[in-house]
Amino acid sequence: MIKKLILLILLCTSVLAFSQQKSYSFTLEEAIQFALDSNYTALNARREIAKAIKKKWETTATGLPQIKGTVSYNNNLKQPVTLIPSEFFGGEPGTFSPVTFGTKQNANAVATLEQLIFDGSYLVGLQAAKAYLDYNENAHKKTQLEVRRGVINAYGSVLLAEELVAIFQSNKNTLEKNVYETRKIYENGLTEEENVEQLEITLLDVETNLKNAERALGIARQMFNVALGIDVNSNAALTETLDQLTQQQIQLDFLDQNLTVAENIDYKIAYNLTEQRTLEMKLEKSKALPRLSAFVNYATQANSDSFTFFDSDQVWYQSSVLGLSLNVPIFSSGMRGARTQQAKIALEQSQTQLEETIQNLKLQFDSAKSNYQFSIESYENAKKNLDLAERIEHKNQIKFSEGLASSFDLRQAQTQLYTAQQQYFQSMLDVINAKTELETILNTPQLKNQ
Q1: Predicted model pTM
Q2: Looking at domain 65-117+291-328, does it have CATH number 2.40.128?
């Protein structure tokens, strides 16, 4: 009875856990939009923008009024003693009398208002904070493009794995039927045992490929879930087929697109770097300028031999100061000049990197166009090869059943067909990924900030 109760509890728990597991269903575009909002890297990229906004305000606030207050309390457990010439009190000349000044306890409260009036570094810092924010916004757009590319690749990989599992299963079913029929013919003495063995070898190969494809499908689904930013074991159904996506991505007029370097996100990031290096050089130069600030404070102080600071009759003495502070750099033994030269060299390096980025983008664009065109041509070729391989395999099936072809000939035709099938499905994914690579370089389509 206890065992039955435990089994019932476990069963209920399993059913409850299964019912609570969330399921998803996505078209490719829905998966992209979901990932732009939930992908782990995309989430942190948005947080970087939030940090940059706070950093900008932090820099701005350093030039705004600053108020600080201090409260102190001192209890002189042993008050300092000062020696005073005794003759001041009518004593012997040349002798000293110990005197204690002040009270044993004192309290002090000060509030100070400070305002920066001029600081070259502050002005440059404001510009640098804005440039830093621009950089993080561009980095976010770069992340969005990478997330989009990753989701498309993962989506296509799942569809490819599903197609391979289906085709391997179909091939396995066909081969099992062939082996069964050929074995019966052999048992009746109408064919050789080698024909059965050849087919069994092919069947073993297909079974191995099927198991590997099933494992690959599981991994592909988990990778897709990670790309979306959901639990790896979640159920995510894909509502589009590999053929549908491939047909959508075959757009020969897309090859007529021209690259606008200034619109590319890698160029924008490289340009941001030159801006930052320019501001760093301006910052080093600004350190040679004077810094002027003003302050006003208000203080109150009380003294007593006992702790009476909260008594109503305690006397507090007020004071206030208004002042200006001018800090003028005069001589640094060449330190500021050396730092400025370092910043200048860093700027030149960033400018060289920017030019290198421009040339690499042009190369990547031409390469991506070539790869995209090649992938379309390979797809068309793989489609024709598959049609030919299917016809050849079908003819050999008929010849083998009629005793006009050997099992070796049939196995060769089947192996050729299986290879053509895999190449055909892989060529579909290649078209999708090649189009995505070209779109990423062109920053097309323009992604909305999430």
Answers
A1: 0.81
A2: no
For 234-281, how does the pLDDT look when each residue is reduced to its tens digit (9 = 90+)? 999 999 999 999 999 998 888 888 999 999 999 999 999 999 999 999
Compute CA distances 346 → 102, 120, 154, 275, whole Å: 60, 21, 39, 11
Q: What is the dihedral of CA 159, 162, 201, 401, to 10 degrees?
A: -100
Alpha helical stretches, state H, 188-292: 193-228, 242-249, 265-286
In this prediction, residue 11 carries a pLDDT of 56
Average pLDDT for 98-118: 90
Q: Kindly list the domain boundaries of the chain, sorted by start residue.
A: 25-63+119-289+334-442, 65-117+291-328
| 283-296 as b/e: b if 16+ CB within 10 A | bbbbbeeebebeee
> Which among 447, 446, 428 has a CA at the least distance from the CA of 155?
428
27: left (phi over 0), alpha (psi -120 to 50) or beta: beta
What percent of the chain is modeled with pLDDT above 70?
94
Candidates 51, 269, 243, 80; CA nearest to 156 is 243
**Counting beta carbons within 10 angstroms of the beta carbon of residue 277, is it exposed (0 to 12), middle (13 to 18) or buried (19 or more)?**
buried
Under CATH, which architecture does the 25-63+119-289+334-442 domain have? Up-down Bundle (1.20)
For the chain, how big is the Rg over CA atoms in Å? 40
Q: What mean pLDDT is reported for the chain?
A: 89
Span of 87-91, 190-194, 358-362 with lowest mean pLDDT: 87-91
CA atoms of 304 and 75, how far apart (whole Å)? 10
